[in-house]
Design a protein that fits this description.
Immunoglobulin-like; 4 domains; 34 strands; single chain; alpha+beta
């Protein structure tokens, strides 16, 4: 059957927001989640409670004291506008530390008359010895000593610092031995930990490795470089390194019994579901119904999810649409969604049974084949009051040619008028196409100026390059050019004015640059820190600019300005 893309009668519905909540069970009014699913004893982690803003009540967190030490707490309010609908939420954040190892349960927390969902967290025993130097050391670990081709391997990097550092820099993971794809799994997390009675500040990064062939995967050590602050003095750059890791990548096993053509699909969990746009028990002939088939896979990329092709059947036409593909990464790894959409039109009254959909997948944790299934669905096609469909010829012994159009007699005048309108639109389109193909006299035109955001990005790139090279004049010119683009009316005339209109840490680094350039003494400015701050900052609003201008001190004292 020819596959024709059609969206005439389909209204796209987005229902993906609830698929990727990090921690189980979702409540309508109070949602609880943690930033990590497992921690070590004496490591802090964050608990978040997202509450309906209409509930202006502080959560009762007394139940947390049984198994956890409760540290700092804070809350913020959020307002979201989606498709014209305004929703308001309030988020409470608690910093917790477990009192004992094991699989602990964060109990439901009362918020007025509502309760949050319980959350489970695994607390591992405390590390007995700190590797490397006592002040700073770095560790790496993988979630499995062996894996399979194209299966996810979770790689975790932790940097422990008991002293203050400046200009930190981490190397990116590097794999050898077999071809491997590397994905960042979530954002970097920071928390506190107690090791051997000493407090450490921990930075954690997670990566998902996907080896593409069997063999031995070699993960190179991660390097951490920084300048250490001791006794009020900053040392030169020091380098700290983790241990190398080797992982065995097993080859692809044979397909399961009964599915000789099954695609290789390794994952940690697979969920198969479907939705219908209307009632399948009462579908008029000639009218469409939309079927959404969703596959959610934990520990796999969106491009690796196999395609489930629906079987062609007599009495029904199937028109596939473009699939929706998404990938979400967090500390637990990568999760992917494939959502296929099909429009189905019954051509004859009667019952049509759509066969079962089966998706074989390899359970990485269990080490065996599993089958995700969608049961068979029966469509009850009833005669349409507006469309009469010609019945099949009784003497036909062979199945009809599905490529031949079926005879449909339209009795509703509305359909006749719609057909005439479509014909008129087609003729107009044909005429416009012919007109556009006529030869035209081309006049030389000047190339359009690059978009504003590309001009700004170029200025910021030049500023970062000048900062790393220590070229103060080039840095000043690039920042002034960027400011003219950002504020065409009332643009800043110097670096100090720009510092008042951007967020930290860029505002701090620009003020340091001004102090080093124009202030008294022999102050130095840090090009690496300034270049790093230029990669992520925000432009302050007028209200924030007015507030910050009252709090920041002048770049140079008045006395120095008078002497100058």
């Amino acid at each position: 059957m020819s596959k024709i893309k059609t969206t005439t009668w389909v209204k796209r519905v987005i229902v993906f927001s609830a698929l990727f909540l990090q921690i189980v069970e979702v409540h309508a009014d109070v949602i609880a989640s943690t930033d990590r699913s497992s921690v070590e004893l004496n490591e802090s982690f964050t608990l978040k409670l997202v509450i309906d803003s209409q509930m202006d009540v502080e959560p009762d967190a007394a139940s947390l004291d049984t198994d956890f030490y409760v540290g700092s707490r804070s809350h913020i309010s959020n307002t979201t506008i989606l498709n014209g609908e305004v929703s308001r939420t309030r988020t409470w954040t608690y910093v917790l530390m477990a009192k004992r190892p094991g699989e602990l349960k964060i109990p439901p927390i009362n918020v007025g008359s509502e309760q949050s969902n319980p959350v489970r967290i695994v607390v591992k025993p405390q590390v007995t010895a700190a590797p490397g130097e006592a002040d700073i050391f770095i560790t790496t670990e993988v979630d499995n000593d062996e894996t399979y081709v194209q299966a996810q391997l979770l790689f975790t990097v932790k940097t422990y610092r008991a002293v203050a550092t400046r200009q930190p820099r981490w190397s990116e993971p590097s794999a050898s031995g077999v071809e491997t794809l590397v994905e960042v799994a979530g954002e970097e997390k920071s928390y506190d930990s107690m090791l051997n009675g000493r407090a450490y500040s921990v930075s954690e990064r997670n990566y998902a490795f996907f080896p593409q062939e069997s063999g031995e995967l070699q993960i190179a050590p991660i390097r951490f470089e920084a300048r250490v602050l001791r006794d009020g003095r900053i040392t030169g750059r020091k380098v700290y390194q983790s241990e190398a890791i080797s992982v065995v990548v097993n080859p692809i096993p044979p397909p399961p019994d009964g599915y000789p053509d099954a695609a290789w699909f390794p994952a940690r969990a697979v969920e198969l579901s479907q939705e219908w746009s209307r009632d399948v028990d009462n579908l008029p002939a000639g009218e469409p119904i939309t079927r959404h088939v969703s596959i959610v896979a934990a520990g796999q990329l969106q491009t690796q999810i196999p395609v489930l092709e629906p079987a062609s059947m007599p009495g029904i036409r199937i028109y596939p649409d473009q699939p929706e593909l998404r990938t979400v990464a967090d500390a637990t790894g990568v999760r992917a969604l494939r959502r296929d959409q099909y429009a189905l039109i019954g051509t004859q009254p009667g019952q049509i049974e759509l066969p079962e959909l089966a998706l074989p997948w390899w359970n990485v944790d269990g080490g065996g084949w599993n089958i995700a299934r969608l049961p068979a669905t029966t469509l009850n096609i009833v005669p349409s009051p507006n469309v009469s469909v010609a019945p099949p010829t009784p003497t036909m012994k062979e199945p009809p040619d599905i490529n031949q159009p079926e005879t449909v007699t339209v009795t509703d005048p509305l359909w006749r008028r719609a057909s005439e309108a479509l014909l008129a639109v087609w003729l107009i389109t044909l005429f416009l196409w012919w007109w556009s193909r006529r030869p035209k006299t081309r006049r030389p035109t000047e190339p359009d100026a690059p978009p504003l955001h590309k001009q700004q990005a170029r200025c910021l790139k030049l500023a970062r390059k000048a900062a790393l090279a220590g070229d103060a004049a080039a840095l000043r010119d690039a920042m002034i050019d960027w400011a003219r683009l950002q504020w065409p009316i009332g643009s800043p005339r110097n670096i100090g004015d720009i510092a008042k209109r951007v967020s930290m840490p860029l505002s701090i680094e620009l003020n340091r640059f001004c102090s080093a350039s124009y202030g008294p003494g022999s102050a130095q400015w840090d090009g690496e820190s300034l270049a790093k701050a230029l990669r992520s900052f925000a432009v302050l609003s007028d209200e924030e600019t007015a507030g910050s201008s009252e709090e920041l001190p002048p770049l140079a004292p008045r006395a120095a300005a008078t002497r100058a």
